[in-house]
Structures are given as structure tokens and as C-alpha cells.
Amino acid sequence: MEKRFKVSYFLNFLGVLAVFFLFVLLFENNAFGRSTQYIKGISTTACYTIIMVASLNLVVGCMGEFSLGHAGFVSVGAYASAIVSNGLTGKGLPDIALFLVALLAGGIAAGLTGVLVGIPALRLRGDYLAIVTIAFAEIIRVLFCNLSITGGGKTMSGIIKLSNFYWSFWIMVVCITVMYMYVRSRFGRTVKAIREDYIAASASGINVTYYKVLTFTVAAFFAGIGGGVYAHYMTAMIPTNFNFMYSAELLSEVIIGGIGSITGSIIGASFLSSLPEMMRQFSQYRMLAYSVVLVLVMIFKPGGIFGAWEFSLIRVYERLTGRKGGWEKSRKKTEGGV
């Protein structure tokens, strides 16, 4: 790995730490007065929404396929993690261990579902794949409405509250980091090559189905993790929460933030997840607001706010100073000596 990338990762990690401690300082000192707990709740909502949106971006941005059933994977993760945590409650596990085990169970359940759906569905492309994913999400929703273990069509309540902002923040950071590394890995580059030219990739000997199903499974796994955080924060849920409109909201956040940009997913999810709270008095117009924002972005920024660009503190430093760091000089010296 180039020294530049190592420095970039280190600086970005310091930036994440700075953001975290800023939130800690604000929340612990009750900086927002009576609204502190309310804003902390919105921040927690943003954390699990970011995980869901970034995972969908793996399918839409990295793989270049159109999915409208992501809420199905979120619901599988949410219900699986809730069932596991309820079953393990009172077994002597610390809360953090119970939370992590439940999240892992939710992620694995959603990932396995992704394999089962992906193998037949990813033979299709474009609108046909979108229709199949919608059908899958509806099948899952109806199934959960008829299973007693999920509460049937009623609310599944009594889920132990394990999510808080601090735990959710670091779970989000870990998930985003792993997804970012996946996109930059050999697997991610191969999937992007398939996205750019499906026929050429197939002709060059790439196992197209394998890489597409793998990416679809990874996206489903992290959607399940996000669903698990959601379940243990809300402590109650009903299958109708994970309907087509929820999938459409997640897709809107991907498009607005930037297709193919993890940074864009973070910004889009943070903004649109807090929008309903900012418009609480006009909640019936929430989807109208989403539509207006989406249309404006499509007109003025067709690629989304960030496009395919990723934020990096080292890039900001280079833009501000107008020069490269010492690592660039050392790389040139090394190349000159070869």
C-alpha cells in the first residue's frame, strides 16, 4: 500500500474520532438543552440509515444494478436479530456481547437470503431485476405478517433496547470501513469492470455471476446489520414498516448522495433521515419533500451531490495548500532510482 494511502486512512480515522468526541461533548454537556435527547435519537437514526443506504449503494453504484427490494433484507436482519436477542436475554451475556451476537445473526440471515435471491435474480438485469426485488420484498413482508414468531401482522414488541448513539456510531464506522475496503479491493474493481462492460468481462473469463452474487450478498449482510441496529433502537416493529416505500426512500438517499459514493451515502442518509423529524408537523408531505429534493438534484447534479467522489482529509489538505505531501516526493525518488 502506498504511503499516501496509509496517511490518508490515518487522517480519516482521526477525523472520525474528532467527530465522535464532538458529539460526546455536545450530548454529555446537554448542549441542546431539552432537545439533547431528541437530537441524539435523530443521530442514532442516521447511523443505522447510513449502513442501509451504503449497502444499497454497493448494488446500485458499484454493481450498477437497479434494486427496489432492499427493505426486504433490512426486515430479515431486523427480525432475526430481535429473535436472537430475545432468546439470549437472561443468559448472562453482557449487553454489548448480546448486541453484537444479535447483529451478526441478523447480518448472516440477511446475507443467506441475499444468496437465495441473488442466484436466480441476478441472471436478469435492469427493470426485470427491479421487479424481482420488489416481489421478493413483498413476499418477505407477507411472510412476516403470517408468522407467529414475528408477531404476525401485529407489532413485535418487547425487544430489548440495546442500541444507543455511541454503539451505533462505531458499528456504522466499522460497516462503512469494510464496505469501502470491499469497493477498493480486487473484488470491487472486478464488479466495476462488469458494470462498465458486461460482455467484455464475460469474454475475458471473469465469472460474472459469482462476483455479482457475492456483492449482492455483502450488500444484504450489511442491510441486515442496519436492520438489527434499527430493531434494538425502536424496540418494536411491524412488517408494514418495511414496505415498498421504505425501499424507495433508501434508493432516493443513494441517488441524492451520489451513486457509487460511500461519502454520498453518508450525506444523503444523514440529511433525508432527519428530514421527517424536521417536517414532523407536515409528515403527510414527507414523500413529496423527497420527490422535490430528488427532482432538484437530478436537474442540477445528475450524478448526485457527491457523484462518485469520496471525501478524504488528505485530498482536502492538498486542495487547500496546492501541493502534494512528502510521501509523493519519496515515491518519485523511489521510481527514479529503479
Keywords:
338 residues, mainly alpha, ABC transporter involved in vitamin B12 uptake, BtuC, globular, disordered C terminus
Task: Please describe what this structure looks like.
By secondary structure, the protein is mainly alpha-helical. The protein has a single domain (32-307), classed as ABC transporter involved in vitamin B12 uptake, BtuC. It has 14 helices and no strands. It is globular and about 55 Å long. The protein starts with a helix and ends with a helix. Mean pLDDT is 85; it is low at 326-338. The chain crosses the membrane at residues 7-26, 38-59, 66-84, 96-119, 126-144, 164-183, 213-234, 254-275, 287-309. It is found in: Cell membrane.
Name the CATH architecture.
Answer: Orthogonal Bundle
Task: Tell me the CATH topology.
Answer: ABC transporter involved in vitamin B12 uptake, BtuC
Question: How many helices does DSSP assign?
Answer: 14
Largest sheet: none
The gross shape turns out to be: globular
Q: What's the SSE pattern?
A: HHHHHHHHHHHHHH
| The CATH C-level class name | Mainly Alpha
The helicity comes to over 70%
User: What share of the residues does DSSP label as strand, in percent?
Assistant: under 5%
Q: Please tell me the total number of domains.
A: 1
Strand tally? 0
- Mean of residue pLDDT values: 85
Report how far the terminal alpha carbons are from each other.
Answer: 18 Å
Helix-strand category: mainly alpha
- Our Rg estimate from Cα atoms comes to 21 Å
Spans of at least 5 consecutive residues whose pLDDT stays below 50 are 326-338
